[in-house]
Amino acid sequence: MRLLKDLPELLDAEVITPETADRIRDYYKSKNTSSANPLLVVFGILGALLIGLGIILILAHNWDELSRITKTLLAFLPLLIGQVLCGYGLIKKQVGTAYRESAATFLFLAVGASIALVSQIYNIPGGTGTFLLTWMLLGLPLVYIMPSSVVSLLYICGITYYAAELGYWSYKSPPPYLYWLLLMGILSHYYQLYRRKPTGNFIIFHHWLIPASVTVALGTVAQKADELLFIAYFSLFGAFYLFGNLIFLKTQKLKNNGYKVIGALGTVALLLALSFNWFWESLIKQAFSVNQLINAPEFYASVLTSLAATGLFYAYLKNKPISRLQPIAPAFLLFIFLFLLGLFSPVAVVLVNIYILLIGVLIVKDGARQNHLGLLNLGLLLISALVICRFFDTDLSFVIRGILFVSVGLGFFLANYGLLKKRKNHEF
Length: 428
Description:
Number of strands: 0
Pfam families: DUF2157
Transmembrane segments: 39-60, 72-91, 103-122, 177-194, 201-222, 228-249, 261-279, 299-317, 324-341, 373-392, 398-420
Domain DUF2157: 10-150
InterPro entries: DUF2157 (IPR018677)
Oligomer: single chain
Shape: globular
Organism: Adhaeribacter swui
């Protein structure tokens, strides 16, 4: 550590006193002993995962040759070992993060293995959804008892798989509403983790995994009115983007702010997808009845996500002037208007294309104002994507299409050249 290396020089120059130097050494010594080595944590968790998977493979290879009693004992053996390891960690209390996370991860996997093995040995009926639900419900207490953030991440993956299994891959299965209750079960740990280590690696993983999980799970409510789900997804991505701009996430680097990235990319991807005619040609033929809306889960998903996004949009506007409003932020509100317009008029698709172009131009302008090459090229990339989309679904001649591509290419060159020249002039 550089400050510790500079202590002799600071002492010789009489900048600090010997007592101050001793206090600095004591401070860094206590800091090093109280914080876990990240590599030790990672290798500990990987070790627990490999040991758990290795035991399962060894048992699976010799499984058919074992008696039922032996199989039952072996099914519970990993569970017993995991409980002993976790019990030791709870009793000692002074074990490090690596031990705690490794033991909890091993026990979490052992719970799943034991459920699967016992079900197989005694031919207990049930599908993958039931297995995942049982596993996650038994594994959730580990998140709080140990406490373990790795188990929390595995739990989020497990409930996402559970929602996808029932919502996407099971024939005529009702929407897995239980997923939302299971997700709420992890939020308390998420909040506590943020309070303890707001910039730690585990909280960053949660910032990415939770919005990704909700994005996957929202599609499982599709039943009777799929078109309404576009409103729900626009509002969900809008809510993510606005949540990522709140004060307690705004200070995070962009790569650590999964809400903002997923919200922005999701909104742009949906806008580009709906810049084609296919959706609007289908929508204008729809005639939603009140009875159909009341019985459609997509309607309630759209209302709830829109209310959440509107509340966050209000909080977003309170903290900054309207002139600094990001063009993606109100996209969900604009889409609700375009959706209603699209029920009666095909002009909605034209407005979507204009809005994408406007977002691209405003991002380019913002990048030039901030002297930010990344933002500038992001705006140009969005405009290029729009031009490419129109290349495939319009009747423009190849000459005009070629001119459009040349224009965008020149735009890339001139914008970057202008910004680099501006930087160079400021350096002198």
